[in-house]
């Protein structure tokens, strides 16, 4: 990658401003001042801006985040803080959520800059399972699990929901696993059977389970096994 493109991405500024910073001798490569943005960077070279190291990104990135309430999963929102606030990573704005959560929903969010990988999570035809811990306003009705297994009719939708697995933990606390991702689906499923979701927390996406020791707002890189669990394109397409 050219040095000026790399600096533009890292610093979030235009190429014109990058050229100005280069002329001001604020950039070094392997300890030497560089004033030309045309320099082709090698992966092993160290770039510094005002003596702060700028990390080169080698390959896609994958993270698990425990999302707290009050944050949106979009990367840019004029009205609400986004989950990028928690990611202390180079060029964090290039990361996106593989499966969003509502602003008031907590729990597992997967962040990546690998569009193909996230598509295998979000595409309806891959039927990637998601598991939620759900707190309800009213005690669970005896027939709700059977209704969810058969599929329920959501308001203003033509097709029934796909079969979902419902496990009762307490009268108003349940664990729900779904394999699709319709708009506000969990809340609308319970509304369809006369109940209301008070709290919603995502525990699992596919085979990736949220770490119990990740506090709200904390994150970590995914393991190689977790990344691979989403599956290779040729196996799922």
**Helix/strand class:** alpha+beta
Q: Count of DSSP helices?
A: 7
Query: Alpha-carbon distance between the termini?
Result: 32 Å
Rg on CA atoms, Å: 22 Å
Largest sheet report: 9 strands, mixed
Query: What is the oligomeric state here?
Result: single chain
Write down how many β-strands occur, each being a DSSP E stretch of 2 or more residues: 13
| H/E element order | HHEEEEEEEHEHEEHEEEHH
Strand content of the residues, in percent?
Answer: 15-25%
Basic shape: elongated
In helices, the fraction of residues equals: 10-25%
Q: Report the average pLDDT across residues.
A: 91
EC number: 5.4.99.-
Domain RNA-binding S4: 1-60
Organism: Serratia silvae
Pfam families: PseudoU_synth_2, S4
Fold blueprint:
Layout: H1 3-11, H2 15-23, E1 27-29, E2 32-33, E3 47-49, E4 52-54, E5 62-67, E6 96-97, E7 106-112, H3 115-122, E8 130-136, H4 144-150, E9 165-170, E10 173-178, H5 185-192, E11 197-205, E12 208-209, E13 219-221, H6 224-229, H7 233-236
Helix pairs in contact: 1-2
Which structural traits does this protein have?
isomerase, 16S rRNA pseudouridine(516) synthase activity, RNA-binding, 7 helices, 4-stranded antiparallel beta sheet, about 240 residues, 9-stranded mixed beta sheet, Pseudouridine synthase, single chain, alpha+beta
């Amino acid at each position: 990658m050219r040095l000026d493109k790399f600096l533009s991405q890292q610093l979030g500024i235009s190429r014109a401003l990058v050229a100005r910073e280069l002329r001001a001798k604020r950039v070094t490569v392997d300890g030497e001042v560089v004033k030309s943005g045309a320099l082709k960077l090698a992966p092993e070279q160290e770039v510094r801006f005002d003596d702060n190291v700028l990390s080169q990104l080698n390959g896609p990135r994958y993270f698990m985040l425990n999302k707290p309430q009050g944050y949106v999963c979009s990367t840019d929102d004029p009205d609400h803080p986004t989950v990028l606030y928690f990611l202390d990573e180079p060029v964090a704005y290039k990361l996106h959520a593989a499966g969003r959560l509502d602003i008031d929903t907590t729990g597992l969010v997967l962040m990546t800059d690998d569009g193909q990988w996230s598509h295998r999570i979000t595409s309806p035809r891959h039927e990637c399972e998601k598991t939620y811990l759900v707190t309800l306003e009213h005690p669970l009705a005896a027939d709700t699990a059977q209704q969810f297994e058969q599929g329920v009719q959501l308001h203003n939708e033509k097709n029934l929901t796909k079969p979902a697995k419902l496990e009762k933990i307490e009268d108003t606390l349940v664990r729900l696993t779904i394999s699709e991702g319709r708009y506000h689906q969990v809340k609308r499923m319970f509304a369809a059977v006369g109940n209301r979701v008070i709290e919603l927390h995502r525990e699992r996406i596919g085979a990736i389970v949220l770490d119990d020791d990740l506090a709200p707002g904390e994150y970590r890189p995914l393991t190689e096994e977790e990344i691979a669990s989403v599956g290779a394109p040729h196996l799922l397409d």
